[in-house]
């Protein structure tokens, strides 16, 4: 939760050519707030993202530019989410002629092509399209520092959410070689990540672990027991088991899977976890390893139900 995170200053110089300005919007999903970055060393700078539109952000940006005796050459948006784009109206109210670049641009914005480079004194940023978190997501390679502005694909705390798991995993694989060595990751939320490639490797391993937990749950194991003993009466096969007061033969609703996999996570966070579980199930279905059953499956709850592929005695969709 945001109250448990290490405090970050509103404005912090992270390197000679990079200043972070928080968006002034801390929260459960935004962590200490959205990170925006002013990049470069000369009188013209590149701005990355615009926060959520909080008055504190535009005030801080104006003060930093005054202190640096600098102006904004161009603004680059990593993706469309409101906590990264909400400050655009305030930005344009202050500096109406500011060019705004984005992959899949909105009206009035300029297209950000894959591998396009924008440069100012002390900094050149090359965009790499990395969909998954959103379809328009892009990261920015900071050549002078062997660093990458990772948007919301890699965060300073915890793991990221995504719209398309397969695309997200492919993007993580694309991002790893963008670093020449143990370069920094400047994330969309949270503190700087000192070793970007290592964090990406952790993310990939975590996603693989979650996928295995879903498969184990479909087999009848609890996440408590993965790597240990299976739940009583399961043996790792589809069985009649009571979950949430309901008996079924190896066919699970998404929330039943969430309660099994995230048994040690507060229940208030289970709805957020459900989206990731659905993405995993859809990936497994495309790979022929999971099956989707008719909605409700006979007991009128209206929820999708899932099983391992090839479960005998039933017909999947």
Automatic annotation (TrEMBL):
Q: What is this protein called?
A: Metallo-beta-lactamase domain-containing protein
One GO MF annotation is:
hydrolase activity
Superkingdom of this entry's organism?
Eukaryota
One record GO biological process: secondary metabolite biosynthetic process
- Region (Disordered) location: 225-245, 294-317
Stretches assigned to the Metallo-beta-lactamase domain: 33-189
Q: Which SUPFAM superfamilies match?
A: Metallo-hydrolase/oxidoreductase
Q: Which family is annotated?
A: Belongs to the metallo-beta-lactamase superfamily. Glyoxalase II family.
The cross-references to Pfam families, in alphabetical order and at most eight, read: Lactamase_B, WHD_BLACT
User: SMART domains from the xrefs?
Assistant: Lactamase_B
What is the source species?
A: Trichocladium antarcticum
Which co-factor is required?
A: Zn(2+)
**Gene3D superfamilies reported for this sequence:** Ribonuclease Z/Hydroxyacylglutathione hydrolase-like, Winged helix-like DNA-binding domain superfamily/Winged helix DNA-binding domain
Q: Which of UniProt's keywords are assigned here?
A: Hydrolase, Metal-binding, Zinc
């Amino acid at each position: 939760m945001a109250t448990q995170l290490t405090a970050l200053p509103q404005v912090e110089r992270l390197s000679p050519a990079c200043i972070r300005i928080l968006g002034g919007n801390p929260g459960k999903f935004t962590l200490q707030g959205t990170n925006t970055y002013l990049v470069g060393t000369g009188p013209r700078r590149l701005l990355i993202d615009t926060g959520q539109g909080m008055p504190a952000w535009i005030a801080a940006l104006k003060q930093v530019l005054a202190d640096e005796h600098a102006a904004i050459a161009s603004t680059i948006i990593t993706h469309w989410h409101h906590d990264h784009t909400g400050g655009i109206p305030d930005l344009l109210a202050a500096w109406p002629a500011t060019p705004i670049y984005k992959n899949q641009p909105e009206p009035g914005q300029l297209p950000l092509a894959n591998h396009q480079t924008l440069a100012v004194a002390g900094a050149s940023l090359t965009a790499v399209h990395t969909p998954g978190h959103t379809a328009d997501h892009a990261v920015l390679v900071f050549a002078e520092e062997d660093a990458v502005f990772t948007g919301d694909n890699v965060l300073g705390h915890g793991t990221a959410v995504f719209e398309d798991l397969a695309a997200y995993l492919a993007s993580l694989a694309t991002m790893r070689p963008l670093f020449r060595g143990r370069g920094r990751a400047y994330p969309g939320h949270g503190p700087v990540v000192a070793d970007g490639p290592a964090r990406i490797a952790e993310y990939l391993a975590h996603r693989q672990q979650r996928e295995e937990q879903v498969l184990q749950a479909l087999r009848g194991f609890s996440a408590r027991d993965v790597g240990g003993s299976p739940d009583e009466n399961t043996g790792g096969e589809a069985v009649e088991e009571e979950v949430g007061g309901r008996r079924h033969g190896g066919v699970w609703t998404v929330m039943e899977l969430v309660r099994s996999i995230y048994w040690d996570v507060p229940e208030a966070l289970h709805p957020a976890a459900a989206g990731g579980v659905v993405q995993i199930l859809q990936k497994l279905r495309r790979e022929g390893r999971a099956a989707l059953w008719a909605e409700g499956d006979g007991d009128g709850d209206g929820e999708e139900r899932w099983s391992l592929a090839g479960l005998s005695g039933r017909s999947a969709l």
